[in-house]
Fold this sequence. Notes:
By secondary structure, this protein is an alpha/beta fold. It is built from 15 helices and 14 strands. Strands 1-9-8-5-4-2-3 form a seven-stranded mixed beta sheet, sandwiched between helices. Strands 12-13-14 form a three-stranded antiparallel beta sheet.
Amino acid sequence: MRDGEFLPYGRQCIEADDIAAVVEVLRSDYLTTGPAVSGFESALADAVGADFAVAVSSGTAALHAAYFAAGVREGDEVIVPATTFVATANAARFLGAEPVFADVDPDTGLIRADEVERLLNEKTRAIAPVHMTGATAPMAAIATLAERVGATVVEDACHALGATIETERVGACRRFSALAAFSFHPVKHVAMGEGGAITGNDPALERRLRQFRNHGITRDPAEFQQPSPGPWYYEQHALGHNLRLTDIQAALGTSQLAKLDRFVAKRRALAQAYDARLAELPHIAPVTTTALAAGSAYHLYAVLLDFEQLGRTRTEVMNGLRARGIGTQVHYIPVTDQPYYTARGVRGEDFPGARRYHARTLSLPLFPGMEVDDVDRVVEALQAVLADAPTP
Ligand SMILES: *Cc1c(COP(=O)(O)O)cnc(C)c1O
């Protein structure tokens, strides 16, 4: 970034070939449900090592469709972490099911397997771990727990395109989950404006995802319940939505996806630069420490600050950084403290891990268009804002 330019916490990286790819679609025959969408689906499936990818209109739509495909319906429970974006929980509500919240590790914001275990019961239809910041949730333990009650594991992988768990790429869904949901919002690894996708390997799940994306309609004669009078015939078997992605978005996504390795490598290099420089600041600890860092895709570079001990509120620190041209963000307010859920009987105080994580977390600027000089700028601004703070 140029010197003095405002550094947001995240932003897209759009290059000339991305723009050319979109313009080409605008001149083509298809603006939606055309070859650019199927091209993106193949490219994404290849990138994560899954048999299929189904593209949809957003990450929220991806979670909604994935829960539907998993058979989530009224009366069911979906276990989700208390620390996440609201969509992970809301997608269960869209289907008349109840999200059941598991507390998170106060230092990583990741769902705790022992909390998941406590919540398991015969109503548990799905478990949706979130790979907070791009570091991965304890998937092996969660997969074992899901098996115990026959629940489907749906990864909320919106932070984790390009991450790995042991030797498996997130989204491959070979060992730990049935489905993984991704978002292509501009701050995520691959930008489409709005967009999402679900990856997996089970053809029956893929069929349900494709049906749900298109109003619950099937055009496959093998699935018809009534005799087909002609080639124009179709049947609606479930209540789906229009969750379709356009070819315009898909063209941008395919062009961006080709750069995923470069983007992730850059994010990791910037994170390492932050780690090295922040080691000199006694008040700040990176959220992603060595054990988690190896496979992280670094959607966010989050740090923990003890604001009470620093004698400054988070708002004061954020405003001080903003005055120095540095944007920051808070990921996330516990969903268990949102009025919509407390009105439904959720008690925020039952989630001390999520509250403790939220009280201390701050996301610093991290995106592929940054350089190490920008990291220096952020760290210098932090030093200035925290000057004279009592040493812990
Ligand atoms: C971004 C995000 C979503 C929602 O994705 P949209 O594309 O904005 O609908 C869901 N869960 C998590 C963890 C996210 O970061």
